């Protein structure tokens, strides 16, 4: 099977994720879309791994999963903190760090 | 020990005194610092006597010794040693400087004892003496300039000693700035001489001067004139004299030490030291002689109209230094040095006696307020009269012999030197008049309240101390004039110092009586005898005429002063009313200060204001600093605008960036 198809699927998922990050204002949904982008990357890595016939790509995919897990932990922790302090759950409203 | 070892010790003692007193300022209580300072200078004086004895042991043609401790600076073509030159001229100077300074230190121990800055005072005083000794012992131009500048710095510190007095700090700045003008002249003169002769050692330069320069060579004349600028600034000659009268803001012992006995004589010493150069450049010598003559007349006339006791003595110093400058510039080297010595004695004595009177007046210096101290202060009166008689050149006091030695030399020279000769005798008349004026106004007449109080056994102390210069209230918290005053009648150290000086002022002239004794001339002969223009002291008909003329003039002028200020007390104000313009001219010191103010001070201040208010604000702050600042500010504003805080816009920028990089690599790849 041609590798092109895998990459097309990966690109579509990535584009969906990007669109979600750019358009959604709920931090929870933004996190979900980030996960989509990461997993799109993973898919591409696995496909390349298959193409070359060695395990390097799979190693990268596992590293990306670890990073994703860590990122989710921090991200969810932030969302809980936002919720606890009764701040608006909206990334556009949380913009104190402007120059 | 050899002569040079003693000479190094002469230098070391005051330096050690300065360091010990200055570093131990917390430790020294009471008068200890004063005794340390006096001891250090006394030791230097003993060493100077050691130098004298060792030098006299040597044969006459080998009395010029150079000793070097270490290399001061060495680079291409320049070799400067930290070296001293010991010859009769420098030995005479160190003897006068250390001897008179010891007595002035002794006097200061009492005079300054109630001052808060007592320890500081003696540290400065020792430093001053060290600088002066370095100046006179220097064996090359570089060490000379170092000593020269140290003397200027020390005089600044001592004139501004009471630093809470605005008048004193201003006077200190003025003295320093005018002295720096002289320093520049000296340094430029040295450059020229180094350029032409390739060495800065005195011996080398003098040796080269004979064959390197023709007689009255233009370059040499310019170099000598530049050296004269240095000499004029230090010795307060017209037109660089304005600092000296103002320098009377310092404590009275400072006036005695710096502005009478030692510092102002540095110019005279410089000319005498440079005599081989001046002999090759007689034009420069003539300029010096004329300036000296102008100064002695001008200062004498101004001295007649001043009312501040110390200022009168200051102008008399200027006038007497004028005699010395006139003498040494015209070639009367030993006579000029002789007058330098006697003047150091009687002028220090006069200042000390004036300090005693000022103490009795509780720091009032105006002659208008003083009168009738004759009965109340017999010792001070006696000393002042001895000093005054020596100053007015009444025989047989010391000033008579020394002043006449200069004038007899000028008379024997003939030619246009006759004009200087006449100026000298007119100056002698003025000297007698202002000396008589001081003596008769301060000591004769009805006793003033302070004198009556003193006669009743109580020393007057002012309720609120005031600055004698401008009448403003003094800040006694920091320094003098402390609550107590000292007068010679009650303080042994003051009395001893003045007594010794009074004896010296009376008898020092007998060292050199024409046709009888030749001590000064023989002593200095090894230094000057090689000169073609050297004239041994042989009495001629002119000498006899001069001595008798001098006697008549001094006694006559004192007689006139007696009539004007004692017998007919209203005479002086009547003369003043007759010629108000002249009186004002003299009271304002011939408008030299006003001219300086208009020509130098105000333009300089205007330049300063322009630089501060216009140049700095527009050019420095506006263009040089403001340009880069506005660039940085604009670019940072642009960068700041991106930081919106909107998470999604960050993501969009990030994606655009990544997409841009990816596109770039894709296009490159194909």
Describe the overall structure.
- The complex is a heterodimer of chains A (99) and B (670).
- Chain A is mostly helical and 99 residues long.
- In chain A, 77% of the residues lie in helices and 0% in strands.
- The radius of gyration of chain A is 17 Å and the shape is elongated.
- The mean pLDDT of chain A is 89.
- Chain B is mostly helical and 670 residues long.
- Chain B has two domains: 3-587, no CATH class; 593-669.
- Helices cover 72% and strands 3% of the residues of chain B.
- Chain B is globular, with a radius of gyration of 30 Å.
- The A-B interface holds A 18, 21-23, 25, 30, 91-92, 94-99 and B 639-648, 651-652, 655.
Q: Greatest chain-chain interface?
A: A-B, 14 and 13 residues
Strand order of the largest sheet of chain B: 1-2
> Total number of β-strand segments of chain A?
0
Could you state the order of secondary-structure elements of chain A as H and E?
HHH
Order of secondary-structure elements of chain B? HHEEHHHHHHHHHHHHHHHHHHHHHHHH
Oligomer: heterodimer
DSSP helix count of chain A? 3
Number of domains of chain A: 1
Largest β sheet strand count, sense and barrel closure of chain B: 2 strands, antiparallel
Q: Mean pLDDT of chain A, as a whole number?
A: 89
Derived from helix and strand composition plus strand pairing, the structural class of chain A reads: mainly alpha
Determine the N-to-C terminus distance of chain B: 98 Å
Short synopsis of the structure:
The complex is a heterodimer of chains A (99) and B (670). Chain A has helices at residues 3-23, 27-52, 56-84.
Give the SSE map.
The complex is a heterodimer of chains A (99) and B (670).
Chain A: H1 3-23, H2 27-52, H3 56-84
Chain B: H1 3-23, H2 32-57, E1 65-75, E2 78-86, H3 88-111, H4 118-137, H5 141-159, H6 166-197, H7 202-212, H8 218-235, H9 243-246, H10 252-261, H11 266-273, H12 275-280, H13 282-305, H14 309-330, H15 333-360, H16 378-391, H17 398-413, H18 417-443, H19 449-455, H20 492-507, H21 519-528, H22 541-567, H23 571-578, H24 580-587, H25 592-642, H26 647-669
Antiparallel strand pairs in B: 1-2
Helix pairs in contact in B: 1-2, 1-4, 2-3, 2-4, 3-4, 3-10, 3-15, 3-20, 4-5, 5-6, 6-7, 6-8, 8-11, 8-13, 10-15, 11-14, 13-14, 13-18, 14-15, 14-17, 14-18, 15-16, 15-17, 15-20, 15-21, 16-18, 16-20, 17-18, 17-22, 18-22
């Amino acid at each position: 099977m041609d590798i092109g198809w895998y990459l097309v699927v990966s690109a579509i998922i990535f584009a969906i994720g990007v669109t979600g990050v750019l358009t959604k204002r709920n931090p929870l949904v933004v996190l979900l879309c980030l996960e989509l982008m990461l997993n799109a990357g993973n898919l591409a890595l696995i496909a390349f791994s298959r193409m070359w016939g060695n395990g390097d790509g799979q190693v990268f995919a596992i590293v990306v999963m670890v990073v994703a897990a860590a990122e989710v932990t921090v991200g969810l922790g932030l969302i809980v903190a936002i919720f606890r302090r009764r701040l608006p759950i909206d990334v556009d409203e949380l913009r104190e760090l402007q120059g | 020990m050899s002569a040079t070892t003693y000479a190094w010790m002469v230098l070391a003692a005051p330096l050690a005194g300065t360091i010990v007193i200055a570093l131990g300022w917390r430790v020294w209580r009471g008068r200890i610092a004063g005794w340390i300072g006096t001891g250090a200078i006394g030791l230097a004086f003993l060493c100077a006597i050691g130098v004298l004895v060792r030098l006299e042991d040597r044969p006459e043609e080998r009395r010029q010794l150079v000793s070097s401790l270490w290399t001061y600076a060495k680079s291409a073509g320049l070799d400067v040693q930290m070296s001293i030159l010991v010859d009769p001229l420098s030995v005479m100077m160190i003897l006068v400087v250390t001897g008179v300074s010891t007595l002035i230190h002794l006097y200061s121990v009492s005079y300054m004892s109630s001052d808060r800055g007592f320890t500081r005072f003696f540290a400065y005083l020792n430093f001053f003496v060290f600088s002066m000794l370095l100046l006179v012992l220097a064996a090359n131009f570089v060490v000379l300039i170092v000593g020269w500048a140290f003397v200027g710095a020390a005089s600044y510190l001592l004139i501004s000693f009471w630093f809470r007095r605005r008048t004193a700090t201003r006077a200190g700045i003025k003295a320093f700035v005018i002295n720096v003008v002289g320093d520049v002249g000296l340094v430029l003169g040295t450059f020229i001489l180094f350029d032409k002769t390739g060495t800065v050692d005195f011996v080398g330069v003098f040796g080269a001067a004979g064959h390197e320069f023709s007689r009255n060579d233009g370059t040499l004349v310019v170099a000598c004139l530049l050296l004269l600028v240095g000499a004029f600034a230090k010795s307060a000659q017209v037109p660089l004299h304005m600092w000296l009268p103002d320098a009377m803001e310092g404590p009275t012992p400072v006036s005695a030490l710096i502005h009478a006995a030692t510092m102002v004589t540095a110019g005279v010493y410089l000319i005498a030291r440079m005599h081989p150069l001046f002999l090759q450049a007689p034009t420069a010598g003539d300029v010096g002689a004329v300036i000296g003559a102008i100064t002695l007349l001008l200062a004498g006339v101004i001295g007649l109209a001043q009312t501040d006791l110390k200022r009168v003595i200051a102008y008399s110093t200027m006038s007497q230094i004028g005699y010395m400058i006139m003498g040494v510039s015209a070639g009367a080297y030993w006579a000029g040095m002789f007058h330098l010595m006697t003047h150091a004695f009687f002028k220090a004595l006069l200042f000390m006696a004036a300090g005693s009177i000022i103490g009795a007046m509780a720091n009032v210096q105006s002659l208008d307020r003083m009168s009738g101290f004759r009965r109340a202060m017999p010792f001070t009166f006696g000393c002042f009269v001895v000093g005054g008689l020596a100053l007015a050149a009444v025989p047989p006091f010391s000033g008579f012999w020394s002043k006449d030695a200069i004038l007899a030399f000028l008379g024997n020279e003939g030619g246009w030197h006759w004009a200087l000769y006449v100026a000298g005798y007119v100056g002698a008349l003025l000297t007698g008049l202002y000396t008589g004026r001081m003596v008769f106004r301060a000591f004769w007449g009805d006793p003033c309240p302070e004198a009556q109080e003193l006669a009743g056994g109580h020393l007057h102390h002012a309720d609120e101390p005031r600055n004698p210069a401008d009448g403003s209230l003094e800040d006694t918290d920091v320094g003098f004039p402390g609550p107590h005053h000292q007068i010679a009648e009650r303080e042994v150290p003051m009395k001893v110092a003045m007594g010794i000086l009074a004896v010296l002022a009376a008898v020092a002239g007998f060292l050199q009586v024409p046709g009888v004794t030749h001590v000064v001339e023989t002593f200095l002969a090894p230094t000057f005898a090689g000169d073609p223009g050297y004239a041994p002291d042989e009495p001629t008909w002119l000498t006899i005429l001069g001595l008798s003329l001098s006697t008549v003039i001094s006694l006559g002028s004192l007689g006139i002063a007696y009539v004007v200020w004692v017998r007919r007390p209203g005479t002086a104000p009547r003369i003043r009313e007759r010629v108000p313009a002249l009186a004002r001219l003299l009271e304002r010191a011939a408008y030299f200060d006003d001219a300086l103010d208009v020509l130098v001070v105000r333009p300089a201040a205007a330049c300063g204001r322009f630089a501060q208010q216009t140049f700095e604000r527009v050019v420095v702050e506006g263009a040089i600093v403001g340009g880069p600042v506005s660039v940085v500010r604009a670019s940072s504003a642009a960068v700041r605008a991106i930081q919106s805080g909107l998470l999604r816009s960050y993501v969009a920028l990030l994606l655009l960036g990544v997409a841009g990089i990816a596109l770039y690599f894709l296009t490159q790849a194909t």
